[in-house]
Specification:
Blueprint (H helix, E strand, L loop, with lengths): L14 H8 L6 H5 L5 E4 L14 E15 L5 E9 L2 E8 L4 H4 L5 E10 L7 E11 L12 E4 L8 H13 L10 H6 L5 H9 L4 H32 L11 H9 L6 H14 L6 E6 L5 H14 L3 E5 L3 H15 L6 E4 L5 H13 L4 E4 L13 E6 L7 H8 L8 E6 L5 H7 L4 E5 L9 E6 L4 H13 L3 E5 L14 H9 L5 H4 L3 E4 L5 H12 L5 E4 L12 E7 L6 H8 L9 E6 L5 H12 L3 H12 L4 H5 L15 H14 L6 H12 L4 H5 L1
Parallel strand pairs: 4-6, 8-13, 8-14, 9-11, 9-12, 10-11, 12-13, 15-20, 16-18, 16-19, 17-18, 19-20
Antiparallel strand pairs: 1-7, 2-3, 2-5, 3-4, 5-6
Helix pairs in contact: 6-7, 7-23, 7-24, 8-10, 9-10, 14-23, 19-21
Length: 692
């Protein structure tokens, strides 16, 4: 059986069931076989019926000695089965399951896994009150061994667990082959199973040891294949893609360094040297700069763009929002135009004439640097001589968007500099950004004021907003952040609409206190969102009551207070990102986290925000406390969640797998099989590998 074959061709799968499986992400045999159990029911020990006690979860194996069916007073159909072993009998109750009458016959052997309780109306007689799973064993004798560890999958109600197990059993019984990506010498070194054997054992293990062996082998193989894929991608950039060999820095870069009104920190200097080394080599630069909020990444990007211009090339910088693009443009224009470097701005809201001038300037080379949004990757944008591409806030863009901007180069691929203020634990960058060289800026520039952070309960809200009023009346501005846009029946989280109505008619009542408030959330049009941010930046709004749309996108030096309602709803890394919107000016800044949760752990987690100001440390803590969860998806780098590995618990395996993949990539990995595996596992996420 071919692992690429659609599941619809399996026995028992018609179009309807195929659609149900597709909703789980299962389209072909490979998807089915790599949909691993989330846990196992230990059915290795059979309990004697005479030893059972109410409340315990037990495994019972016996012969059906009696069956009876009747209608209950409530109109339910009750099928009662009496099961016996050598020590006694016990009752099983099945409600509204008429089909079982044909399947369950007197004298048949049966295995039941479930919770023991007292039978209804049974005068103290025990029964299986909650049947978790059961198997009818037909002509088997009770001495036959039952499946010791029953796999349990995460399945919706419309897919029966037994039907799902039957599909996997059907595939395993056929002649199915998997490509083994991990070379034999590595498999032997770490005592790993072949993939086919590991897949069979993960689904139908006979012992605990088989579960552990299969898990260990599949975790290693998954992490190894990802690392090999990312390293392969990186190698393609360095061998096939001829880069631009820039000359060492000259007068223009020196003049910009003089024009910057501060000295670079040690870490900024180190990262700048790494970028210079990359740009001066013959291979294409592919570097990620991770810097905490306010660490000075933009200055490094400016220097790199100027280096490209100094060598006769153009530079492009893509930002996730229009207002951020405009702020970058204003900064670059004021710094660089006195040095005769022409800077342009390209966003979706430009008037036709302005847009035409920028497009023409890029095509004829009269514009040296362009700052823009997604508008930069449109097909009609042509550069005369693109030498450097900078992507700001990388986690807001997908891999394909980044690649599309790179493809604007003509004779040579431009160097690529990627920046993110989203702190990612150092070890996680191996998996999330394994195809890039990584630089870190952790040190904040001198003069940046610390943000004082406090965790408070809702009973302090009157005092909190009295403090906000006082700061606004001194001339400062404030953010109030909420987790939801509108109230939800399924959640008790506070909504931004509810908080806006409450504050503007109470604590921040405009007519009484002279405070101008505005409401901002993701359902507003892009134009309306941008206008509100402009007005806030211009000081026309005192308090911006918002969802997390302000997490990235605007630098307002006068904003010195942030109140986060329902702070327990956010991860530490996201709270830190939000907090980074304030503390950007000369004023003392305050972040107040209002905890509405009743969980002691979430309160302890929030208190870390009071003690820790370093985003990387908080990201490590967030990962430790909350688990990886949707980490890959949230990075938008093209990697979905892992199927079996857990980056937090398997970090040592990840490091080992990467080390072995580096050794094996040149001579012992079947590149074709690797590409095929990554395409099957991640669909179009690794499309760039397949394209090269």
């Amino acid at each position: 059986m071919d692992i690429k074959q659609n599941v619809q061709y399996l026995k028992g799968v018609g179009p309807k069931k195929a659609q149900a499986l597709k909703r789980l992400g299962i389209e072909n045999i490979y998807d089915l076989m790599t949909y691993y159990p989330r846990r196992y029911e230990d059915q290795s020990d059979i309990n004697a019926i005479s030893s059972l006690k109410a409340g315990q979860i037990a495994n019972i194996q016996g012969k059906i000695v009696a069956l009876a069916d009747k209608n209950t007073r409530r109109g339910l159909k009750l099928l009662t089965v009496v099961l016996a072993d050598d020590t006694g009998t016990i009752q099983l109750n099945f409600f509204n399951q008429d089909y079982l009458k044909k399947k369950l016959k007197q004298g048949t052997m049966m295995f039941v896994h479930g919770k023991i309780g007292f039978a209804y109306g049974g005068y103290g007689q025990l029964a299986v009150t909650q049947i978790i799973s059961f198997d009818v064993e037909a002509e088997k004798s009770k001495e036959d061994t039952h499946c010791a560890f029953m796999p349990v999958y995460t399945l919706p109600d419309y897919i029966k667990p037994k039907d799902f197990r039957n599909l996997i059993e059907q595939v395993i019984a056929s002649d199915i082959e998997f490509n083994d990506i991990v070379p034999d010498f590595i498999r032997s070194k770490y005592h790993l199973l072949m993939k086919k054997e590991a897949v069979e054992k993960i689904h139908f293990p006979k012992t605990k040891r088989e579960i552990e062996e299969a898990k260990r082998s599949l975790i290693f193989e998954e992490l190894f294949s990802i690392q090999a894929g990312l390293l392969f991608l990186k190698k393609q950039h360095t061998t096939r893609n001829k880069g631009i060999k820039f000359l060492p820095n000259s007068d223009l870069v020196a003049n910009v360094l003089k024009a910057i009104p501060f000295e670079l920190t040690q870490e900024q200097q180190k990262v700048w040297q790494e970028i210079c080394h990359d740009m001066q080599s013959e291979t294409q630069m592919q570097r990620l700069v991770q810097g905490d909020v306010g660490s000075g990444k933009t200055v490094i990007a400016i220097l790199a763009l100027v280096k490209a211009v100094e060598n006769g090339y153009q530079g492009a910088m893509m930002a996730p929002t229009e207002i951020l693009a405009i702020q970058h443009f204003d900064k670059l224009q004021s710094l660089l135009e006195p040095l005769n470097i022409k800077v342009g701005l390209l966003t979706g809201s430009l008037k036709a004439k302005q847009r035409r001038e920028v497009v023409e300037g890029l095509a004829d080379g009269s514009l040296d640097i362009v700052i823009g949004t997604h508008a930069l990757i449109q097909d009609n944008i042509i550069f005369k001589n693109l030498g450097l591409v900078v992507t700001d806030e990388q986690h807001r863009f997908g891999v394909n968007q980044r690649a599309k901007l790179e493809d604007k180069g003509i004779d040579f691929l431009p160097d690529v500099l990627v920046m993110t203020a989203t702190p990612i634990p150092r070890t996680m960058t191996l998996t999330v950004y394994g195809d890039l060289d990584v630089s870190f800026i952790k040190q904040l520039p001198p003069g940046r004021k610390p943000i004082r952070t406090f965790v408070r309960m809702p009973d302090r809200r009157e005092l909190i907003y009295k403090f906000v009023r006082g700061e606004v009346q001194k001339g400062r501005q404030a953010y109030v952040v909420c987790p939801l846009i509108e109230e939800s029946e399924n959640s008790d989280a506070v909504s931004v609409e509810m908080i806006y109505d409450e504050l503007t008619s109470g604590y921040l009542y405009g007519i009484r206190y002279g405070i101008r408030c505005a409401l901002l959330h993701g359902k507003l049009s892009s134009k309306d969102k941008e206008q509100l941010l402009y007005d806030f930046l211009a000081g026309k709004i005192d308090v911006l009551i918002s969802t997390t749309v302000i997490e990235v996108g605007v630098n307002v030096p006068n904003a010195s207070i942030m109140v986060i309602e329902g702070a327990e709803r956010f991860g530490l890394a996201q709270l830190h990102q939000l907090r980074g919107r304030i503390g950007r000016g000369e004023f003392a800044s305050y972040c107040i986290l209002i905890n509405r949760g009743r969980n002691a752990n979430s309160l302890e987690r929030l208190h870390l925000m009071e003690k820790i100001s370093d985003g990387f440390t908080l990201a490590e803590e967030d990962l430790r406390l909350r688990g990886p969860g949707q980490f890959f998806g949230s990075m938008q780098h093209g990697l979905p969640d892992l199927k079996i590995a857990d980056v937090l618990n398997d970090i040592n395996v990840l490091i080992t797998a990467r080390k072995e993949a580096q050794k094996a990539l040149d001579f012992s990995i079947d590149k074709k099989a690797l590409v095929e595996l990554l395409q099957m596992q991640y669909k179009d996420k690794f499309i760039k590998i397949a394209d090269n």
